[in-house]
Design a protein that fits this description.
The chain is α+β, with helices and mostly antiparallel strands. It contains five helices and eight strands; from the N terminus they run αααββββααββββ. Helix 1 runs antiparallel to helix 2, helix 1 (2-13) packs antiparallel against helix 5 and helix 2 runs parallel beside helix 5 (114-126).
Protein backbone atom coordinates (compact mmCIF):
# COMPACT_ATOMS: atom_id res chain seq x y z
CA UNK A 1 0.00 0.00 0.00
CA UNK A 2 2.94 2.35 0.49
CA UNK A 3 3.41 2.03 -3.27
CA UNK A 4 0.02 3.68 -3.83
CA UNK A 5 0.86 6.44 -1.37
CA UNK A 6 4.17 7.01 -3.19
CA UNK A 7 2.26 7.09 -6.47
CA UNK A 8 -0.07 9.76 -5.09
CA UNK A 9 2.94 11.82 -3.98
CA UNK A 10 4.45 11.47 -7.47
CA UNK A 11 1.18 12.67 -8.99
CA UNK A 12 1.15 15.64 -6.64
CA UNK A 13 4.75 16.50 -7.48
CA UNK A 14 4.22 16.22 -11.22
CA UNK A 15 1.82 19.18 -11.34
CA UNK A 16 2.76 22.17 -13.43
CA UNK A 17 3.95 25.41 -11.87
CA UNK A 18 6.44 26.18 -9.15
CA UNK A 19 4.03 26.32 -6.24
CA UNK A 20 4.51 23.62 -3.61
CA UNK A 21 1.11 22.66 -2.24
CA UNK A 22 1.76 21.65 1.41
CA UNK A 23 -0.40 18.54 1.13
CA UNK A 24 2.20 16.37 -0.60
CA UNK A 25 4.83 17.16 2.05
CA UNK A 26 2.27 16.64 4.82
CA UNK A 27 1.40 13.21 3.44
CA UNK A 28 5.01 12.15 3.05
CA UNK A 29 6.46 13.54 6.31
CA UNK A 30 3.65 13.77 8.84
CA UNK A 31 1.29 10.95 7.81
CA UNK A 32 3.46 8.22 6.30
CA UNK A 33 6.52 8.73 8.54
CA UNK A 34 5.22 10.69 11.53
CA UNK A 35 4.47 7.65 13.69
CA UNK A 36 7.98 7.32 15.13
CA UNK A 37 11.25 9.19 15.42
CA UNK A 38 13.02 6.25 13.77
CA UNK A 39 10.90 6.66 10.61
CA UNK A 40 11.47 10.41 10.58
CA UNK A 41 15.22 10.02 10.99
CA UNK A 42 15.39 7.31 8.32
CA UNK A 43 13.87 9.88 5.94
CA UNK A 44 16.83 12.13 6.74
CA UNK A 45 19.21 9.24 5.97
CA UNK A 46 17.46 8.63 2.62
CA UNK A 47 17.67 12.35 1.78
CA UNK A 48 13.88 12.81 1.72
CA UNK A 49 14.14 15.85 4.04
CA UNK A 50 16.56 17.52 6.41
CA UNK A 51 16.30 18.03 10.15
CA UNK A 52 17.79 20.84 12.18
CA UNK A 53 19.64 19.46 15.18
CA UNK A 54 17.66 16.33 16.02
CA UNK A 55 16.68 16.53 19.63
CA UNK A 56 17.80 13.92 22.07
CA UNK A 57 16.25 13.68 25.51
CA UNK A 58 18.46 14.73 28.40
CA UNK A 59 17.33 11.82 30.54
CA UNK A 60 16.54 8.79 28.38
CA UNK A 61 15.10 6.79 31.28
CA UNK A 62 12.39 9.22 32.31
CA UNK A 63 8.95 9.11 30.76
CA UNK A 64 7.67 10.73 28.76
CA UNK A 65 10.65 11.66 26.66
CA UNK A 66 9.63 14.85 24.92
CA UNK A 67 11.16 17.07 22.31
CA UNK A 68 10.76 18.94 19.09
CA UNK A 69 12.47 18.94 15.72
CA UNK A 70 12.33 21.14 12.60
CA UNK A 71 12.15 19.39 9.22
CA UNK A 72 12.74 21.07 5.86
CA UNK A 73 11.33 19.44 2.74
CA UNK A 74 12.92 19.65 -0.74
CA UNK A 75 10.11 22.09 -1.63
CA UNK A 76 11.50 24.46 1.00
CA UNK A 77 8.48 24.10 3.28
CA UNK A 78 9.33 23.65 6.96
CA UNK A 79 7.48 21.53 9.48
CA UNK A 80 7.77 21.39 13.26
CA UNK A 81 7.37 18.08 15.06
CA UNK A 82 6.53 18.12 18.77
CA UNK A 83 6.54 14.68 20.34
CA UNK A 84 6.21 12.69 23.55
CA UNK A 85 7.50 9.16 23.64
CA UNK A 86 6.49 6.63 26.25
CA UNK A 87 7.48 3.00 26.55
CA UNK A 88 4.50 1.88 24.47
CA UNK A 89 3.10 5.07 22.94
CA UNK A 90 4.41 7.72 20.55
CA UNK A 91 2.38 10.93 20.42
CA UNK A 92 3.21 13.79 18.08
CA UNK A 93 1.96 16.94 16.44
CA UNK A 94 3.40 17.80 13.03
CA UNK A 95 2.68 21.36 11.89
CA UNK A 96 3.49 23.38 8.81
CA UNK A 97 5.52 26.51 9.62
CA UNK A 98 2.70 28.60 8.14
CA UNK A 99 3.93 32.00 9.28
CA UNK A 100 7.44 31.44 7.92
CA UNK A 101 5.92 30.84 4.47
CA UNK A 102 3.90 34.05 4.73
CA UNK A 103 6.87 36.02 6.10
CA UNK A 104 9.03 34.84 3.19
CA UNK A 105 6.31 36.03 0.79
CA UNK A 106 5.83 32.50 -0.56
CA UNK A 107 2.07 32.37 -0.12
CA UNK A 108 1.79 30.63 -3.53
CA UNK A 109 3.21 27.57 -1.72
CA UNK A 110 0.01 27.39 0.33
CA UNK A 111 -2.31 27.08 -2.66
CA UNK A 112 -3.57 23.68 -3.80
CA UNK A 113 -5.61 22.74 -6.83
CA UNK A 114 -8.68 20.53 -6.62
CA UNK A 115 -6.65 17.74 -8.25
CA UNK A 116 -3.95 18.03 -5.54
CA UNK A 117 -6.59 17.86 -2.80
CA UNK A 118 -8.17 14.79 -4.43
CA UNK A 119 -4.74 13.15 -4.78
CA UNK A 120 -4.03 13.90 -1.11
CA UNK A 121 -7.30 12.23 -0.06
CA UNK A 122 -6.51 9.23 -2.28
CA UNK A 123 -3.04 9.08 -0.69
CA UNK A 124 -4.57 9.02 2.80
CA UNK A 125 -6.77 6.09 1.80
CA UNK A 126 -3.92 4.28 0.00
CA UNK A 127 -1.60 4.59 3.02
CA UNK A 128 -3.56 1.75 4.68
CA UNK A 129 -3.20 3.16 8.16
CA UNK A 130 -6.84 2.42 8.93
CA UNK A 131 -10.28 3.70 8.13
CA UNK A 132 -10.47 7.35 7.03
CA UNK A 133 -13.40 9.52 8.06
CA UNK A 134 -13.77 12.96 6.50
CA UNK A 135 -15.44 15.88 8.28
CA UNK A 136 -15.83 18.96 6.08
CA UNK A 137 -16.69 22.32 7.64
CA UNK A 138 -16.78 25.80 6.19
CA UNK A 139 -13.32 26.58 7.60
CA UNK A 140 -11.64 23.39 6.37
CA UNK A 141 -11.56 19.62 6.49
CA UNK A 142 -10.50 17.15 9.16
CA UNK A 143 -9.60 13.54 8.40
CA UNK A 144 -9.71 11.00 11.20
CA UNK A 145 -7.63 7.89 10.57
CA UNK A 146 -8.31 4.99 12.92
CA UNK A 147 -6.09 1.93 12.71
CA UNK A 148 -5.32 -0.97 15.02
CA UNK A 149 -2.27 0.74 16.49
CA UNK A 150 -2.39 4.26 15.03
CA UNK A 151 -4.83 7.14 15.37
CA UNK A 152 -4.37 10.36 13.41
CA UNK A 153 -6.20 13.59 12.92
CA UNK A 154 -5.19 15.45 9.77
CA UNK A 155 -6.52 19.02 9.67
CA UNK A 156 -6.53 21.13 6.50
CA UNK A 157 -7.74 24.67 7.17
CA UNK A 158 -8.43 27.50 4.75
CA UNK A 159 -9.93 28.11 1.35
CA UNK A 160 -7.33 29.95 -0.71
CA UNK A 161 -4.23 29.52 1.48
CA UNK A 162 -4.05 26.17 3.25
CA UNK A 163 -2.58 25.46 6.65
CA UNK A 164 -2.16 21.85 7.76
CA UNK A 165 -1.25 19.90 10.87
CA UNK A 166 -1.35 16.27 11.95
CA UNK A 167 -1.87 14.85 15.43
CA UNK A 168 -0.70 11.25 15.85
CA UNK A 169 -0.91 8.62 18.55
CA UNK A 170 0.76 5.31 17.76
CA UNK A 171 1.28 2.24 19.91
CA UNK A 172 4.89 1.12 19.72
CA UNK A 173 4.11 -2.36 20.99
CA UNK A 174 0.79 -4.17 20.86
CA UNK A 175 -1.06 -4.26 24.13
CA UNK A 176 -1.08 -7.57 25.93
CA UNK A 177 -4.37 -9.36 26.07
CA UNK A 178 -6.21 -8.50 29.27
CA UNK A 179 -6.13 -11.17 31.89
CA UNK A 180 -9.38 -12.83 32.72
CA UNK A 181 -9.86 -14.00 36.23
CA UNK A 182 -12.02 -16.99 36.87
CA UNK A 183 -13.51 -17.65 40.22
CA UNK A 184 -12.15 -20.66 42.04
CA UNK A 185 -14.65 -23.22 43.11
CA UNK A 186 -14.71 -24.30 46.74
CA UNK A 187 -12.87 -27.54 45.99
CA UNK A 188 -10.00 -25.64 44.22
CA UNK A 189 -9.33 -23.30 47.11
CA UNK A 190 -6.27 -24.13 49.22
Amino acid sequence: MRFFAALMIAILLSGEGVAACPLNDTLKLCVLNGRSLAALHSGVDRGDWTVEAPSSPVNTTSEPRAGSEQYTMPSGLRFAMYYQEYRRLFSATCTLDYFAVLAADRSEDLRCSSAEIEAFEAGLAAASLGSVTKDRKESGTAYLIEGQTTWMTVVVVGKDLLNVWVETSALKKPLNKPRTWKAQSDHEKP
